[in-house]
Amino acid sequence: MGNGAWLGILVLFSVLFIVVSTTRFKLHPFLALLSVTFLFGLLSGMDLPKLLDSLQKGFGDTLGRIGIVIVCGLIIGAFLEKSGGAFSLAEAVLNMIGRKRVPLAMAIMGHLVSIAVFADSGFVILLPLAKALSRRARLSLAVSAVALFFGLLSTHVMVPPTPGPLGAAEIMGADVGLVILYGLPVSFLMALVGCLFAVKIASRVWIEAGAGVTEDEIERLVAQAPRAWKAAVPLILPILLIVTKSFADYPTHPFGTGPVAALLSFIGSPVVALSIGVLLALWLPKRLERSMLSSTGWVGESLNSAAIVILVTGAGGAFGRVLMDAGIGDAVGHSLSRLSLGLWLPFLVAAALRLAQGSATVAMLTTSAITLPLVEVLGLASPEAKALTVLAIASGAAAASHANDSGFWIVTQLSGMDVRTGYRLVTVGSTVVGLCGAVTVWLVGWFVL
């Protein structure tokens, strides 16, 4: 057996190990990724010093560039959630879209809120509003709940600073600004397709909205929350700064090469841009209290959440570095290049991992580590191609949400769906949304690559 075939088998074994250990044996993804990194390195014949060096560099380099960014993103999300800013944004969207267009309003709300708030948390925050609007419009809760979830899901997998796409971009070496620039319109189209699925398919299932929170109670919550524009600033400004940096660093130098370009490049780096976002987020509560910044307050809760994401992201970076240093790209790249899969290969790998183990973030990080050594032979080495590769991975990670995904249970249980209905609406719908993303990314790639 040739070295290429053996390394290919080891990659398949690695994926299988991650899936089985995290699903059947409930092993934490960090331990699963760390274990498989050692196993792959040993079985591939890497020298022990080289294996240790690759693992440490992959882990350290990844966290050095992304750890602070993840922490900042989660702090912004916590302040947006707990200050009531998410409700203010939702109310503003509702006023613009119209209170009769409930599914579209819920999809757009989810799309905005999930830029900083995890999709699961965003669903819990906005579901009372979905129930109130569904009651008023005499609409099945299934429609508004499904539209909301797919709006949340689209940005959760597509748009940094959400940890999944941010970690995938870091592992792939993709420009975060380009990922955002392409990811925002693609994710918005995915949200619209999810909304259409909700209107056409979920409307066939009647779920009573129930009592829940009244509109008067929601209005009281919004009255205590920061204004919508104020809540939007910590979300939108960092994104604008990061995208501006991508333009400033472009080879044509649209802002020149002087102090202005240097300043834009500095404040548009993800670490600085998200740090500015954190400072602006501190402005959201009616009164900023020291307890909010303590280890047990809003910041402390964010750091606890960040620790898990950071460790898994670092382990994913270590796995990717070991794969690359073992020579997997040269070994199996020739056979893959003959298949001419291009952007479809990372999509299919991510979709398979998502289907098997449930976590969209783990699927994205693992697929990025597997794809990185293959970008040359797949013709995806340019900055634009790497950004689109991240989005192809994200599209796969959006698909096939089912019983091994926490989001599936949050949607079904809180909205009153039975499991069979959940498979019909959440699982099938998320697959449609993921395929929409993949086709859109492929079409964009056809024009720009």
Structure description:
- The protein is mainly α and 449 residues long.
- The protein has one domain.
- Helices cover 76% and strands 0% of the residues.
- It starts with a helix and ends with a helix.
Question: Secondary structure elements and their pairing?
Answer:
Blueprint: H1 3-23, H2 29-43, H3 48-82, H4 85-97, H5 102-113, H6 119-137, H7 141-158, H8 163-172, H9 176-200, H10 215-224, H11 228-248, H12 259-267, H13 270-281, H14 298-325, H15 328-339, H16 344-357, H17 360-371, H18 383-398, H19 406-415, H20 419-448
Helix pairs in contact: 1-2, 1-15, 2-14, 3-8, 3-13, 3-14, 4-5, 4-10, 4-11, 5-6, 5-7, 5-9, 6-7, 6-19, 7-9, 7-18, 7-20, 8-14, 8-17, 8-18, 9-11, 9-18, 9-20, 11-12, 11-13, 14-17, 16-17, 16-18, 17-18, 18-20, 19-20
Our estimate of the beta-strand percent is under 5%
Q: Helix coverage percent of residues?
A: over 70%
pLDDT < 50 runs, ≥5 residues: none
Helix/strand order, N-terminal first: HHHHHHHHHHHHHHHHHHHH
- Could you say which overall geometry the principal axes of the C-alpha atoms support? globular
Cα distance, first to last residue? 36 Å
Number of DSSP helices?
20
Counting structural domains, the number is 1
Coarse structural class: mainly alpha
Briefly say what this structure is.
The chain has 449 residues and is an all-alpha fold.
Descriptive labels:
about 450 residues, globular, mainly alpha
